[in-house]
């Protein structure tokens, strides 16, 4: 879980608003390579990023 959260924060720092599309691209590449364990990890990271970004949006609205 810690690795997933760290990866999510690093991706957001690096890619900002393009983070989810970058993760989509990474997942597609890993699927082509048949790296299903890595795909599962990045799908978890993707879900974590979505929650973090959504929480950030709700804070900026308030």
Summarize the structure.
The protein has 62 residues and is mainly alpha-helical. It has helices at 2-15, 19-33, 36-61.
Poorly predicted parts: none
For the secondary structure, the number of strands is 0
- Overall number of structural domains: 1
Query: Would you tell me the structural class of the helices and strands?
Result: mainly alpha
Largest sheet: none
Q: From the alpha-carbon coordinates, what is the Rg to the nearest angstrom?
A: 12 Å
User: What is the count of DSSP helices, taking H or I runs of 4+ residues?
Assistant: 3
Description:
- The protein has one domain.
- The radius of gyration is 12 Å and the shape is globular.
- The termini are far apart.
- By secondary structure, the chain is mainly alpha-helical.
- The longest helix is centred in the C-terminal third of the chain and has 26 residues, at 36-61.
- Helix content is 89%, strand content 0%.
- The mean pLDDT is 92.
- The protein is built from three helices and no strands.
Break the fold down into its secondary structure elements and pairings.
Layout: H1 2-15, H2 19-33, H3 36-61
Give descriptors for this structure:
single chain; 62 residues; mainly alpha; 3 helices
């Amino acid at each position: 879980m810690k690795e997933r959260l760290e990866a999510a924060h690093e991706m957001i720092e690096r890619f900002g608003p393009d983070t989810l599309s970058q993760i989509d691209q990474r997942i597609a590449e890993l699927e082509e390579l048949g790296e299903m364990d890595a795909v599962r990890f990045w799908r978890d990271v993707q879900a974590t990023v979505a929650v973090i970004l959504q929480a950030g949006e709700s804070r900026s609205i308030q």
